[in-house]
Write a structure and sequence with these properties.
The protein is of the alpha+beta class. It has helices spanning 25-36, 46-52, 68-74, 127-132, 156-162, 171-177, 180-192, 198-207, 216-228, 232-241, 245-248, 266-281, 287-304, 312-327, 331-343, 346-349, 355-362, 367-380, 385-396, and strands spanning 9-11, 41-44, 61-64, 78-81, 87-91, 97-102, 109-113, 116-119, 141-144, 149-152, 164-165, 195-196. It has a domain at 1-162: 2-Layer Sandwich (Beta Polymerase, domain 2).
Length: 462
C-alpha cells in the first residue's frame, strides 16, 4: 500500500480539546509564520498527545513541507542542526527553542542486520509518509493551524481513548530501527498509565539486547526522563517485566522485586516516595538526587558486604565508576550522588559523634540535599513523618542536645558578663567579643659585633 495515498481521519475543532490557549506564544508564532509564507505547518508529536490528555507539554515540535534551508531563511533567529537529517532550531528569549523539521519518509535508523542498527540518509516525504515512519500511534497526530483540526493517519486518537501504546507497523522492525523506542514506549506507558499492546510488549522483550547498540548518552537521557516524570516506579516495573533492566542496569534487578509479587520491591517503593515528595513540595530534583535514588540500595548492600578495615569512600568509587563509564554519567553528578548516599549513615550514627565534628559535617554544602534524600528513603522504609522529624531535630539545631559552646556556630557562642571587654578609654564590656591579651612588643635584636671589631668609645658631651 502506498502510504502517501492514505486518507487521514480529520477531527474538527469542536471534537477535540486542543486549544491555542494551552500552547506557548513561541510555537504559535512559528506556526503562523510558516502558514503565512504559504507552507503547511503542523504541531506534532508529544505536544499534541499531551494536550489531548490534558498534560502540560514539556516542549513543542513543528513539522512542515518547507525544506530546512527555506525554514532558516524564514526565521532569522534560527540555526540548522543535525547531520543525518537537517532540522531547524528557532530560538527565543530565555533560551527557549522550537524545533522545526521537514516531512520525511524513512526512519532515523535502517536495519540491515539484526545485530547492528545502522544510520541512513533520510529523504523528504509527505505528511502521510511522515506519520507512518514514527514510533507509536499516539505520537503520530498532527494539529493543523489552518483549521485547528487534528489529522490522524494511524488511528492514534482511538488508541488514546483506549489508553494503549501501539507501535506503528511491525513492532520488531520498529525497535530494530531504533532500540531507544523500547525505553520511550515504557516511559510513555508509565507516565500516562497506559497499557502496552501485547505484540509491542513481546517485541520489546525480544529486541531488548539491541539497546546497547545505541549511544550511551541517549540511553542515559531516557533514564533521566523517566525519573523526572511521575510514575517512575511503574516504568521500572515494566523494565523488569520486559527484562530490559537486566540489560541497562543489571545491579538494580534484585531490588525491583519478583513477578509474582507485582515487582513491588524496595526500588519501586523508593521511586514512589520520591514522586510523592516531589509532587507535595512542587519541586524538581537534580540529576544527583535521581542517581542517588537509583544506586542507594545496591551501594548500601555493597557496603555491608565489605570486610572491616576497608575505606568506604574508595570502594564505593570503585563500585560506581564502571556503571558511570558504561552509561556516560557526568562525573560531577555521580560524585554528588555518592556524597548523598554516604551521608545517610550520618543520620544513624551522627547522634553519638563529637558535637563539634557533627556540626562541621552538617554544614557541608551537600547536606541539605542529603536531608531531603533521607526523608525520601525514610518514607519508602515505612517511617512516619513524626519519626523522621524526631531524628532530624538533633541535627537541625546543632548543640541543642549538648549545651556546649563547641558545637554552636561562632556567632552564637555565649559570652559571660565579664567577657568581651575592649581596651577602650571607658573599659566597658561590649558583650560580643573575647578577652584580648596585649600583644608583646618585639624589640629589634641588638647588632652582632664582628670578630676583631672594637667597641666604639663613648663620647662625652658637654
Amino acid at each position: 500500500m502506498d502510504k502517501s495515498d492514505v486518507a487521514p481521519r480529520i477531527i474538527s475543532r469542536h471534537e477535540h480539546c486542543v486549544s491555542r490557549k494551552n500552547m506557548t506564544e513561541d510555537v504559535i508564532k512559528v506556526l503562523y509564520r510558516l502558514k503565512n509564507t504559504g507552507n503547511i505547518a503542523y504541531l506534532c508529536g508529544g505536544g499534541v498527545r499531551d494536550l489531548l490528555q490534558g498534560i502540560g507539554p514539556k516542549d513543542f515540535d513543528v513539522v512542515t513541507d518547507a525544506r530546512p534551508s527555506a525554514i532558516k531563511n524564514i526565521f532569522r533567529n534560527s540555526r540548522l542542526v543535525g547531520r543525518r537529517f537537517r532540522i531547524v532550531h528557532v530560538f527565543f528569549k530565555g533560551g527557549r527553542i522550537v524545533e522545526v523539521s521537514t516531512f520525511r519518509k524513512k526512519a532515523e535508523y535502517c536495519q540491515h542486520d539484526a545485530e547492528e542498527p545502522i544510520k541512513s540518509d533520510n529523504t523528504f516525504g509527505t505528511p502521510a509518509e511522515d506519520a507512518f515512519r514514527r514510533d507509536f500511534t499516539v505520537n503520530a497526530l498532527y494539529y493543523d493551524i489552518r483549521n485547528f483540526a487534528i489529522i490522524d493517519y494511524v488511528c492514534g486518537m482511538e488508541d488514546l481513548r483506549q489508553k494503549i501504546i501501539r507501535a506503528i507497523g511491525d513492532p520488531d522492525v520498529r525497535f530494530q530501527e531504533d532500540p531507544i523506542r523500547i525505553l520511550r514506549g515504557i516511559r510513555l506507558a508509565a507516565l500516562m498509565d497506559f497499557t502496552i499492546e501485547e505484540n509491542a510488549l513481546q517485541a520489546m522483550t525480544r529486541q531488548r539486547e539491541l539497546i546497547f547498540k545505541c549511544a550511551a548518552p541517549r540511553i542515559l537521557e531516557e533514564i533521566f526522563r523517566t525519573l523526572r516524570r511521575p510514575n517512575s516506579d511503574r516504568a521500572f516495573k515494566l523494565l523488569a517485566e520486559t527484562q530490559t533492566l537486566d540489560i541497562i542496569l543489571p545491579d538494580l534487578v534484585d531490588f525491583v522485586g519478583k513477578a509474582e509479587h507485582g515487582f513491588d520491591g524496595p526500588l519501586p517503593r523508593l521511586l514512589r516516595a520520591m514522586d510523592n515528595r516531589r509532587q507535595v513540595n512542587e519541586r524538581t530534583y537534580g540529576d544527583h538526587i535521581l542517581l542517588a535514588a537509583l544506586f542507594y540500595l545496591p551501594v548500601t548492600r555493597f557496603l555491608k558486604s565489605l570486610p572491616s578495615g576497608c575505606d568506604p569512600e574508595t570502594t564505593v568509587n570503585e563500585y560506581l565508576s564502571p556503571i558511570g563509564a558504561a552509561l556516560n554519567i557526568p562525573k560531577l553528578a555521580l560524585q554528588q550522588a555518592r556524597h548523598l548516599i554516604m551521608a545517610q549513615d550520618f543520620f544513624e550514627t551522627g547522634a553519638g559523634m563529637n558535637p563539634k565534628r557533627r556540626f562541621r559535617l552538617f554544614k557541608r554544602p551537600y547536606m541539605a540535599d542529603a536531608v531531603e534524600f533521607f526523608r525520601i528513603q525514610s518514607e519508602a522504609g515505612g517511617l512516619s513523618q513524626e519519626e523522621v522529624e524526631v531524628i532530624l531535630a538533633q541535627y537541625d539545631q546543632p548543640g541543642a542536645k549538648d549545651k556546649t559552646a563547641a558545637c554552636q556556630p561562632p556567632h552564637e557562642i555565649p559570652r559571660g558578663p565579664n567577657q568581651g571587654i575592649k581596651n577602650s578609654p571607658t573599659g566597658e564590656a561590649s558583650g560580643n567579643g573575647k578577652n584580648r591579651k596585649r600583644r608583646r612588643r618585639h624589640r629589634p635584636p641588638k647588632p652582632v659585633m664582628k670578630s676583631g671589631a672594637t667597641k666604639p668609645e663613648a663620647v662625652n658631651h658637654p
